[in-house]
Design a protein that fits this description.
380 residues; 2 strands; lipid biosynthesis; mainly alpha; 2% strand; 10 helices; globular
């Protein structure tokens, strides 16, 4: 701000209120102003010392106030605020730039969780061995059952020791298990019961050779293993003793496999309601319906065309019982594996797991099928 805003040229060398002398330290007088009071363009002066004079528009308004265009000219005028116009245009929201189209991922196919090619190959190989031994020499098939029992016992006792520290004695279990299968074929049900009792006694005695810590736990696990694997498998030997024994065993195997296949096929394609999620999350109610339907249809055909004196309606009941027992047996072993914290009992069979993973539905189904055969068509 320069002094021309105050309406009159100041005195040379003086920058203060009227009636006072030069201010100490003030700059010397500069060149004179022209006739119109204009300051030479190249001359600069320091800012004046402003006195405590009321602002223009107050009680002491004078001609200096007329030079101020920002305030009112008279006392009674009330300053009117000037409305401020927003000259800025409202900004429109920026529209997002169109992004490049993302590729749509291809729908994922359901997976069985196993190597199906290996599973099918192993299944076909086992089926060929079973059929060849079953219809050529019955004794050879009894040996196949005994070998499967021993391997299953080895897998079960190994897992019990690894995961729970349970030392079920394998030697008396293996010897007694094979003896049960052979005794059932040679001496019938009485021979199987005697072999079972002797096996349990051998487990008690064998475990005495080790320290007593965990004795009750180990012998209990051993007795359970003896009943669960070899004793239930003995009923297959009992079926084989009949005149049409090979066809009864074949019917038993076919119905169990068909039940498992129907449960897998229908459950994999349509399954949405869990059957027992805490035990086996992969099993569904739709799969159970598939197991029952497939097993009943196969049972009607087998009883009508393979079993002497059998009828189709007996096959329907047989198929229903097989589907129920096979499902319960599968859930039972799933409960054991879940308690042990494992997925499979072994790795001997590629695509299947271990021997026990294939015997899980067969073992509890064997006594059910044997009993219904005895009821429907007799023991021999």
């Amino acid at each position: 701000m320069n002094d021309s805003s105050w309406g009159a040229p100041p005195q040379a060398g003086y920058w203060g209120p009227p009636g006072q002398g030069p201010v100490a330290g003030a700059a010397p007088a500069g060149p004179a102003y022209d006739a119109y009071g204009a300051q030479p363009p190249l001359e600069t002066r320091p800012m004046p010392i402003v006195s405590d004079v009321p602002a223009s528009g107050g009680d002491q308004d004078d001609d200096r106030g007329a030079a101020r265009l920002s305030g009112p000219l008279f006392r009674d005028e009330v300053p009117t605020p000037t409305p401020q116009t927003n000259t800025q245009q409202p900004q429109k929201p920026q529209e997002p730039m169109p992004s490049a189209p993302q590729p749509v991922p291809a729908p994922q196919k359901k997976s069985a969780g196993r190597d199906l090619s290996a599973a099918i190959g192993v299944g076909v190989g086992l089926g060929a061995v079973i059929l060849a031994s079953l219809f050529i020499v019955k004794a050879v098939f009894v040996g196949v059952i005994a070998i499967a029992v021993v391997v299953g016992l080895w897998e079960l006792t190994k897992r019990l020791k690894e995961r729970k520290g349970i030392k079920a004695p394998l030697v008396p279990l293996a010897v007694g298990g094979a003896a049960m299968v052979v005794a059932g074929y040679l001496r019938g049900a009485e021979g199987a019961w005697v072999a079972m009792a002797l096996t349990a006694l051998a487990i008690l005695v064998w475990r005495m050779t080790e320290p007593p810590d965990g004795y009750l736990r180990d012998v209990t696990a051993g007795a359970f293993a003896a009943f669960y694997v070899p004793f239930l498998a003995t009923f297959v030997s009992l079926m084989l003793t009949a005149d049409d024994g090979p066809w009864r065993v074949l019917t038993f195997l076919l119905l169990t496999v068909v039940s498992d296949t129907g449960a897998y096929a229908i459950g994999w394609r349509f399954g949405s309601h869990k059957l027992a999620p805490r035990i086996s999350p992969g099993k569904t109610r739709e799969g159970l319906v598939g197991a029952v339907t497939f097993a009943m249809a196969a049972g009607a055909l087998c009883m009508e065309f393979l079993i002497d004196d059998g009828t189709w309606w007996q096959g329907l009941l047989l198929g229903l019982a097989v589907a129920a027992s096979a499902t319960l047996g599968d859930l039972g072993e799933s409960m054991i594996k879940r308690d042990l914290g494992i997925k499979d009992m072994g790795t001997l069979l590629p695509g299947h797991g271990g021997i026990m993973d294939r015997l899980d539905s067969l073992l509890p189904t064997a006594p059910v099928v044997w009993l219904l055969f005895v009821v429907f068509v007799g023991a021999s």
